[in-house]
Amino acid sequence: MANTDDLLITTCKTMISTILSCLDNATRGTIYKIGLMPELTAVRVLSGARKPGSNKLTWGLPVVSEYNSPGKKWEMYRDLPGRPLEAMGWCVEKQTSWTADNPMEDPRSVRKQISGEPEDEFHMEPVLVRKKSLYGRSQNLQYPVDWQGNPVWMDSEYVVSAVVKIHFQPGSLRGGDRSTVVVHNLARSLGSELLSLWFREKLYLAGKEFERQRLQSCEILAHELRNTLVKLGFVFSAINAQIGILRESWEKLLQQHRPELEWKEPLLDELCDVLSERVGELHSSAELLNLGQKLLAEQKELAALYLSPFQDREWVKNKIYPKWEKLLSATDLWNRAQIESLLDRLENALSTGISYDPSNNIDGLPVELLDRWSKLAYVQITSGNLFQLDEAIRLLEEPVLPVFHKEQMLRVLKSLRAIVYTIPEVEGKANSILQSLRFGNRAEDQYNFGPDVLGFEYDEELGVGLAD
Known about the structure:
- The chain is α+β, with helices and mostly antiparallel strands.
- Among the domains are: 4-176, Beta-Lactamase, CATH 3.30.450; 262-355.
- Helix content is 54%, strand content 10%.
- It is built from 15 helices and six strands.
- It has helices at 4-22, 74-77, 87-94, 110-115, 131-135, 178-257, 264-279, 286-304, 309-330, 336-349, 352-355, 367-376, 386-396, 406-438, 451-454; strands at residues 26-34, 42-50, 57-60, 98-100, 121-130, 158-168.
- A six-stranded antiparallel β-sheet has the order 3-2-1-6-5-4, with helices on both faces.
- A hairpin with a 6-residue loop joins β2 (42-50) and β3.
- α8 (286-304) runs antiparallel to α9.
- The longest helix has 80 residues, at 178-257.
- The protein starts with a helix and ends in a 14-residue tail after the last helix.
């Protein structure tokens, strides 16, 4: 869409050209935009002057002017005792025109009041639009006030949206003559154009605001979705905690019926005993003493946990081995060969439960059941292997499976399974909504905002008028 400011300048240029073409005695025209209440900032939009001896026009603004952007607010150009009176203040407050056909007698000639020099003959015409066209039927309007504090425009059905100023050749202007009537009548069409531009800008800004809010909503929803999915991700932690109970029961069964197998708990207990015997001798080095005590705590913690072989190895690799290596390198309190042998045996013992061949009957349990149990006890349930969650539930439904609190585990896993199977659906639907919000139809002609949404209402008579 074309920039609204460019359209405004084009509209003002057309208006000035039309007036100067209709009036041979007109020499220059300027249009000022009047902002919304209560500031009523007056800004010079465009000036056009006729080249001497031709019908060509030159365009531009004075280099220095109080009305150049950002303009003058109402408080700076309204009537005020002790300050030069301005024709601009009259036109805006009274909503009527001002004709300066005798510059030396003009009480609102700023130049005459300040320096005693006469200005050009000029006519200023306010451009009026209906108040409800710009502000709707709001009862809470903040009106500008005169220097005595009295609100202006409160009893008028119009507001001033612009002011047209036309300069004339000396001696060619008379108040109420054809020139002022032409400017008066042409200002009506300018009011229509300005209101149309205002509606266009309002619609454009509403569309941009809607797009901003849509993208903001998308970001908020995406953030909430991520948080929700992260929270739902903990469902897998809860599921694998139940699998950990299944693994603990399996390993305890093997330890009971296959005492010849080597397990991590006795080896970790032995490492703890060896460490405890000499760790007190590290008192001369606070750093090594703290390291030894931390290693002792981590070995005891690992011995009490029933983790998967992968998690056990990561624990040993990242927490046990480095600390033992640092202690063995810093002191000769421990026999390196003994510690390394225990650590090697610990590495092998981490796979005892998963590497055991359950082809032989244990405690009268079917081989097929033992085989399923030995495999499912070491799975890590993720979104990619949910079928194994179903298998674990079917295993727990076996009446002969010797697992304590089996019924409670079944209820928990079935409830968690119901949640897990909804995650992809929730994620898919949420992503679909986010895609729709983020990449919705951005075509400007699809923003079908009605007047009520934008805060104004269209008038049956176009909502534009001038005081007669």
